[in-house]
Amino acid sequence: MHQINGEMIIGRKAVQGKEGTVKAVDPSRNEQIEPAFGLASNAELEQACKLAGEAFDKYRETTPEVRAKFLETIADRIMDLGPALIERAMQESGLPQARLEGERGRTCNQLRLFAKVVRDGRYLSATLDSALPTRAPAPRPDLRLRKIGLGPVAVFGASNFPLAFSVAGGDTASALAAGCPVVVKAHSAHLGTSELVGKAVQQAAIESDMPEGVFSMLIGSGQTIGQNLVAHPAIKAVGFTGSRAGGIALMKTAAARNEPIPVYAEMSSINPVFLLEGALASNDKLPQQFADSATLGAGQFCTNPGLLIAIESPALDKFVEGATAALQAKGAATMLTPGIHSAYNKGVAQLAGVEGVSLIAQGKTGDLPCGAVAGLYAATGATFLAKPELESEIFGPTSLLIRCKDEAELLAVAEHVEGQLTAAVHATAADIGAAKKLLPTLERKAGRILFNGFGTGVEVSHAMVHGGPFPSTSDSRSTSVGAGAIDRFLRPVSYQDVPAELLPAALADGNPLAIPRVVDGELVLK
Amino acid sequence: MHQINGEMIIGRKAVQGKEGTVKAVDPSRNEQIEPAFGLASNAELEQACKLAGEAFDKYRETTPEVRAKFLETIADRIMDLGPALIERAMQESGLPQARLEGERGRTCNQLRLFAKVVRDGRYLSATLDSALPTRAPAPRPDLRLRKIGLGPVAVFGASNFPLAFSVAGGDTASALAAGCPVVVKAHSAHLGTSELVGKAVQQAAIESDMPEGVFSMLIGSGQTIGQNLVAHPAIKAVGFTGSRAGGIALMKTAAARNEPIPVYAEMSSINPVFLLEGALASNDKLPQQFADSATLGAGQFCTNPGLLIAIESPALDKFVEGATAALQAKGAATMLTPGIHSAYNKGVAQLAGVEGVSLIAQGKTGDLPCGAVAGLYAATGATFLAKPELESEIFGPTSLLIRCKDEAELLAVAEHVEGQLTAAVHATAADIGAAKKLLPTLERKAGRILFNGFGTGVEVSHAMVHGGPFPSTSDSRSTSVGAGAIDRFLRPVSYQDVPAELLPAALADGNPLAIPRVVDGELVLK
Predict the structure, then answer these.
(1) What is the mean pLDDT of residues B156-176?
(2) What is the predicted ipTM?
(3) Taking a C-beta distance cutoff of 8 angstroms, is the pair B295, B396 a contact?
(4) The model's pTM
């Protein structure tokens, strides 16, 4: 059982693509893993999109309970895969067992959170304005608003979270919760993991009696199948996590369609960490905390602390000393793919070659074929402000420390950085004045602002924002993690004087779904 | 008092542009009106954007009460303009006094609605997840989310609503409510009206002690000043109402920026009206209601009923007879500008020239220089399905009736149309079965679905959606009318473990703003 056949998923079928084959790679050995996966033709893409389009009207009108149960059943079927899933994901990603087990838990919790979101019904934004038939000069009609799904969503999984940001990850879970069928383009870095999870979703859809096209998963290259998927008229939105170049390519394709569609691309972030003087002077654990966060998952987190910013001081020198020791103790770690490993080494070499940038510390090297060596570099504030290339994300465990001459330069650096997923501030009570000056800038720059921590932990909850201004994402109005992720795939529809027998349950008299609604401008809980 | 000087508004200054001049035109006489308006240079654009950028942090942190009062003061200052505003708007637009007085009321009500929205605070989406310091395997941090403004917004007014969709119209009101400074590009069709209203906003900003850059208004061409405004790095979102070509040009500019920004363009809609058999047979007033809606404001409504769809029947023949009589009784009406008038005539001629399209009825002609003659044309369902050019919006009082051979063809026509602002269904109890089949398609196609009415009235309320799939707007996730319009200019920010003294009031312990908040996943009213 749980065999991997090299198949993609087209509705209720498992299909072996005929446009060539590709194999997954074990990055810890730099060797291919069996079996071969067949690549999709455009006919398969066409079929997946057609089924998704046909499924939409039926799927989006499933009751909250049915849809919530479907999401929970997906979680159950993923758990049913047992160790087979974890073993394959370890092979394909080089990530350790505990991390992948944790990520599996996160993935299932995420599906269950969206089941709760669907049952709670706040996402519908149900709103009713009563008719005022005798109002002068003109009567007011009966108006009722709810949100519905945008339509079928194309999902592109990320290499660095083969479960939580992939086939049944946050994009898929939130799109399905919103009532949108999903067509996944499987990530080539974890094809076997994708097949296992894809079949779990397919199984849950069958058990839950969902319309056939509610879920499909294609295998193919981003340049061909990926681009064609985004260009397909049946697709109405895109969820993507990956590189800046990849995200921008999808944005361009989506904007060039006859009907442009929204793209939610989470792309590039260096996550500035401001080390204020009081914190540097009083928190002995800071160097170790930094080193741990910077090397977590071989530095392959979107929220990795790529940029440290501090004002010159003896306390900063002491931090550098401690960080040096902590980093030097870090062993090399296998990266997700040979391609990511070579891009990392290239990025580090480019950084090291920039005039004014100096190496502070390096982690241990080793003989892993895709092993990333941790690194910390430094430059002055003036250098950073003058050299835009220092803002390029290096995906992996290398950070750059900006040594500012004074507070004004630190604030200038904050104002200079591009949009970010996170911005962290390490501060004590003595730093509150400086933090207050920094905060308005950080609000404009980042989706999440955190104090006395590092951004690498991303809680799946209601108040999380995993998003931020460009280029951290393509759409700062959204989050890809947490309950708010469902809002990305919804649009409002207003019903004016629609007969009672045609009104959706969310808007019916008597509030049969018992959801919060805004009635004549006032929020009513149920 | 209330003199018109030909000036634009740069923060607290009134400035006469030096890049040439332009005059408004009275379309009822086809003659220019004094005075000459000076056109902006890039230096003035730069200054307006710089001030807006500088104002943002201060303006967005004004208290709800201060910001709401500012919006209400704008409404008061507009009313203070008295008859001078209405007279100038009549001259510039050719629209009658009662219509413009009504539109002024709508504009002020809209500002007051957004004052209420700001005080209610639901738009902030305040959300709190409590810290769980003892949770295993990892503690949960304290997470709090609120929405903040995107940043300065560029607003492009519409020709057809010189008050309600212009300088202090829905885009400006909702952007200011969201905490975003606004830079308006004044519409060349009503420059004097714009100056009067712009100075009322400026006056309100001064009285309310707002930061200088909270509002500016530039005069210039769309191709130069308009495009440069959208391209300016300080601008973070765009509100536009106008033509499809104009909207698409702004979308392209916004997407090509180093930092792409959202464009909310309301563009092109032909607003299909489905006349089902029971309604045709029983509602004698339908022909007159149609003719009144089609010719309202010389047909210059975004929600004008441009497309009628019905199944062949004796009742349809009778409707056509009645509509013919009703339209023939309609006099020609002055259009907004000579350019719109000639575009209308060109559009009608193109429609009339399409093979398979026949003229049913025309309104009266007259000797108005910019007078629009009402018209009704007809084609079969098969012709409509075969000829995409029949979907082009004709801005003005001309509609096309699609005569379908059966219900299947009617449903095919519904599925064939592009995205719309509105879709109307005329139905009696006997038509409920057919309406039920139609509804899912209309939900996918339109932002507002209405029964037994025409879409030309757009209520300013909580449950209104004035938006819809492309090409009716550039972003189906939004509405440009009603309380929801504020959501267009907001983005979420998450605060993790942020010290109490740095938290915004919306997220503070004890809920000092007394706003609804989601606390640990549950909605709490205050």
Answers:
(1) 97
(2) 0.97
(3) no
(4) 0.98
